[in-house]
Design a protein that fits this description.
about 375 residues; alpha/beta; Rossmann fold; Dihydrodipicolinate Reductase, domain 2; 2 domains; 15 strands; about 20% strand; globular; disordered N terminus; binds nicotinamide-adenine-dinucleotide
Length: about 375
């Protein structure tokens, strides 16, 4: 017989479990919250902004698309017409700072190449706007600190586009890991990678800040941290890159790393630009869970094993997908006066660990992580 607790998990009443742990999408309006949709300006009209993010506003309760920023007039016209954005709300990079005079813009969503995140986020804060910034938050922990400081000075909120933190299977896995029903967590593994096509900014260090780790391996790092539910204390890493491959003249291909957490959890993580992976596993003393694909745009699957019995968790369809839930979360935090989940500090933690991963691979030794990881950047 399954216990009630176990039945909850195994039968897949996952949304309930996630909400019980305060991890639900939190998307439903509560009576205290004003029913206003806050306006987003999207900066950078590339693949992710136009193909994944912009279509999601139709499913948002608290967010609407009100402005566009691009260096390409044809894109401003095309997407401006498609989304009904008036000409007065279409900006080039040259007149970006004048967004300060537009009351229809509450939030600026930075979807530019990584090396541009800090500058455009800081200028948005200086214009008095709240900031949503894509992952990786920036190309260094120091840049993240400057972004956090700028938003704090301006009194605006800062959130990072960690959409998986709003995806039901990931939420269910986090809640299950924290519930103790699989026993204390011992081992986490997470693999993320794809085959990188040549000739793109991702392969140019000045624009990307690094290779697979900055782009896709960061999902392995995120999963390790949100499944462990604590901050790592030490990391070791190894890199393998064929420098004769023109794609990897300035950035790494594969970099694997192991994180050790205070409770003893070990997380082994894969990051690759030359092979396809998208999964995580968590092993407790009483059972395990496995997600694959774990952090994709769609098609997530999750299995749980206990007492030698493996079952797939079938979650009810969410009210809104991970993208819409992420877009709605920041307006809710702004209106409620709370810190958003996936805050700037969360992005800073990842960049601080990423710097230690690169250093470990370079120096061939384990790197201790600073205790401030758990609290936030100095001066925070
Ligand atoms: P992309 O190349 O498709 O888009 C980048 C945009 O920036 C383009 O419109 C380009 O014209 C513009 N741009 C402005 N100045 C530029 C310059 N100097 N060099 C190059 N481009 C310049 O890239 P993308 O895939 O949309 O990625 C954009 C950001 O979104 C990245 O930070 C990436 O990590 C992030 N992203 C996140 C996810 C996710 O699932 N959360 C998925 C894809 C991308």
């Amino acid at each position: 017989m399954m216990t009630a607790n176990r039945r909850t998990i195994m039968a897949g009443a996952g949304a309930g479990l996630a909400v019980a742990y305060g991890l639900g999408s939190g998307a439903r309006a509560n009576a205290a919250q004003p029913q206003r949709k806050l306006g987003y300006a999207i900066v950078g009209l590339g693949y992710y902004a136009t193909q994944q993010i912009m279509p999601q506003f139709r499913d948002c309760e608290f967010a609407r698309l009100t402005a566009l920023v691009s260096g390409t007039p044809e894109k401003l016209e095309r997407y401006g017409e498609e989304y009904g954005i008036p000409v007065t709300h279409r900006y080039s990079y040259a007149d970006y700072d004048s967004i300060r005079d537009n009351p229809d813009i509450d939030i600026v969503y930075v979807v530019l190449p990584n090396a541009m995140h800090a500058e455009y986020s800081i200028r948005a804060a200086q214009a008095g706007k709240h900031v949503m910034c894509e992952k990786p938050m920036a190309v260094s922990a120091a840049e993240c600190e400057a972004m956090i400081a700028a938003c704090r000075k301006a009194g605006t909120k800062l959130m990072i586009g960690y959409r998986s933190q709003f995806e039901p299977h990931n939420l269910h896995a986090m809640a299950l890991a924290q519930s103790g029903d699989l026993g204390p967590t011992q081992i986490i593994t997470s693999e993320h990678g794809f085959y990188a096509q040549p000739n793109q900014w991702r392969l140019e260090r000045p624009m990307s800040g690094g290779g697979s780790l900055m782009d896709i391996g960061i999902y392995s790092l995120q999963a390790a941290r949100y499944l462990a539910g604590e901050e790592p204390v030490e990391v070791t890493a190894m890199e393998s890159t064929d420098r004769s491959d023109p794609r990897f003249a300035s950035v790494e291909d594969r970099i694997d790393f192991v994180l050790r957490f205070p409770s003893g959890i070990m997380a082994s993580c894969v990051s690759s630009y030359s092979s396809n992976h998208n999964n995580f596993r968590l092993h407790g003393t009483e059972g395990w869970l496995r997600a694959e694909p774990a952090t994709a745009y769609t098609g997530h699957r999750l299995w749980v094993e206990r007492d030698g019995q493996t079952q797939e968790i079938n979650l009810p369809p969410p009210d809104k997908n991970q993208f819409a839930a992420q877009l709605d979360h920041l307006p809710q935090a702004i209106m409620a006066g709370t810190q958003p989940r996936a805050s700037g500090e969360e992005g800073w933690r990842d960049l601080s660990i990423i710097e230690a991963i690169y250093r470990s691979a370079r120096e061939g030794r384990a790197i201790r992580l600073p205790e401030t990881l758990a609290t936030g950047p100095a001066g925070a």
